[in-house]
Amino acid sequence: xxxxxLVLFLPSVDDxxxxxxxxxxxxxxxxxxxxxRPDAFFTDAYWRTQLQSNFDDAAAGHAVRFHFAHRRxxxxxxIGHVSLSQIFRGPFLNAYVGYAIDGENAGCGLATESVGGxxxxxxxxxxxxxxxxxxxxxxxxSLRLLERLGFRREGLAKDYLRIHGEWCDHVxxxxxxxxxxxxxx
Length: 185
Description:
Layout: E1 6-9, H1 16-25, H2 27-30, H3 44-60, E2 64-70, E3 80-88, E4 94-101, H4 110-125, E5 130-135, H5 140-148, E6 152-163, E7 166-176, H6 177-182
Helix pairs in contact: 1-3
């Protein structure tokens, strides 16, 4: 899938080295927001297995985990990822969105563009009704990104997720397809 400046794609097992390079490069920057990762998370062997699992999840309709690169260099360096996970069908039609971008490309709207592309895919291709995102309150950049895309704050979950051994509160946000359409997206 392409946006104005990005190519979002589902990496194959052959892309493990690209994903590993991205994860190693963003390890420190992501640490305050991510669960603690074992050292194996930053190896090609881990990502070969994980990328096959990601492909299987996408085929089964459970999750879609895009990585993205600049359009002008689609085969080159991965600069971020955006995932639609825990996709529920039936009366819920919901998914959770997660995302990150490397520090070198932060602050120029590419994360917002990638998440916007994933949202369009969720609503237009997958036919979902609702997307949720949960963010540590101190992650002001992420909260601003979600606000720009029309997510509304729905509450605060106490001790929601364990990050580096500490239970962290998270701001709960959501966006519905009708909200997205009302924004003219």
